[in-house]
Design brief:
It comes from Izhakiella capsodis. The chain is of the alpha+beta class. It has helices at 18-25, 28-31, 40-50, 105-120, 135-143; strands at 2-4, 8-12, 62-68, 74-83, 89-96, 125-131, 147-158, 161-171. It binds coenzyme A (COA).
Length: 172
């Protein structure tokens, strides 16, 4: 599998992408809106699961690496976790190394992922849970035709404080 935009190449996670996986999950700025920094054992477990072959009925996450075409440098990760038949829904996630934030890469990478999930895999509904206040995440979803469907109050414990989640949805 390979997705492409003007500036980016997006491909399946491979064993050699462990350094990127580690860097993203240990990037304090990047993880500030996601979770606590996972410990090494937890990260190894997640990485192994992400390497499993993915089909749209899989329980585990599809994990993709985003790299810049110009430099070949890996800059972030995209994820998609399906709720298969009969729901036809998939939850997306994304995290880019903080040094690459604010350059339009997030919005650009999300576009072909959405197309792939809706039109190649055949999902009916894409969802994203965003911690309330994560405006850059909200903005890239809105730029990719997601609409705010509601707020889940105290939906996750982030660094010792309960946080609301915005639920964003895009329908086929
Ligand atoms: C969320 C993330 C993927 C966005 O990627 P990015 O490449 O930085 O985003 P882009 O540069 O494409 O777009 C960011 C948009 O948010 C806007 N933005 C940034 N901070 C903002 C703020 N405080 N208020 C309002 N808008 C803001 C920018 O202006 C830009 O919008 P524009 O294109 O209309 O100017 C990236 O910041 C990231 O990896 N964050 C850490 C992990 C994370 O939060 N993941 C999401 C979990 S739901």
């Amino acid at each position: 599998m390979r997705l492409e935009t003007d500036r980016l190449l997006i491909t399946l996670l491979k064993p050699e992408n462990w350094p990127l996986f580690l860097r993203v999950h240990q990037d304090e700025q990047c993880m500030a809106w996601v979770s606590a920094i996972p410990d090494d054992e937890e990260l190894q477990k997640r990485f192994s699961e992400c390497l499993l072959p993915w089909f749209f009925t899989s329980d585990h996450m599809l994990c993709l690496v985003v790299r810049q075409k110009k430099t070949g440098e890996a800059i972030g990760l995209l994820g998609a976790t399906a709720e298969g038949y009969p729901y036809c829904q998939v939850e997306i996630g994304y995290a880019f190394l903080s040094q690459f934030h604010g350059q339009g890469f997030g919005s650009e990478a999300l576009a072909p992922l959405c197309e792939y999930l809706l039109h190649h895999c055949g999902f009916h509904k894409l969802t994203a849970h965003v911690v309330e206040g994560n405006w850059s995440s909200r903005r890239i979803l809105e730029k990719n035709s997601f609409l705010l469907e509601g707020v889940l109050r105290d939906n996750r414990l982030l660094r010792g404080r309960w946080k609301n989640d915005w639920v964003f949805v895009r329908l086929r």
